[in-house]
Amino acid sequence: MIDIDYKHELQKIYDFEIEVSSIADCRRVMSVINEQEDMLILIEENVKKDIRSVESQYITNRTSIRKKYDSNKSGILNSLKGPFANNRVKEMKKLENIRDESLEYYYEIKFTAENLLIQTREIKENLQTLMKEMLGNF
Predict the structure, then answer these.
(1) pTM here?
(2) Which residues of 105-132 are buried (b: 16+ CB within 10 A; e: fewer)?
C-alpha cells in the first residue's frame, strides 16, 4: 500500500482559503487550485490501488487459511465439524473484519477526495469566470 497520510493531504486542500481582489490574486489562486486538483487525482488513483491491494491481500490470506485447514483434515466430515471448522470460521471472520475496516477507511478517503475534486473544479470554473469579468471582454 502507498504510504501517504491521505487525511492530512485532504485536510490541507480543504482548509485552503480563497481571497481574490485582483487578477494577480486570481492567477495565484488558480495555480494553487490546479496543484490541488492534481493532488486529488493522484490521491484517487493511489486509493484505488490501495483498495485493490487490500482485496488482493484478503484473497491471498483467505486461500492460505483454506490450505492450512484442508491439509489438517483426514476426511470431508472432519472439516465440516469439530475444532478445525470452528477455528477456520474464526480465522476467516477475523480476516474479513480486518479487510472491512481497511476498506471502510479507503472508501471514506475516496468519497472525500471525489467530493473535493468536484468542489475544486467548480471553484476553478468560477475563478475563470471572475478573471474574464475583471479583464473585460478583450
Answers:
(1) 0.77
(2) bbeebbebbeebbeebeebbeebeebbe
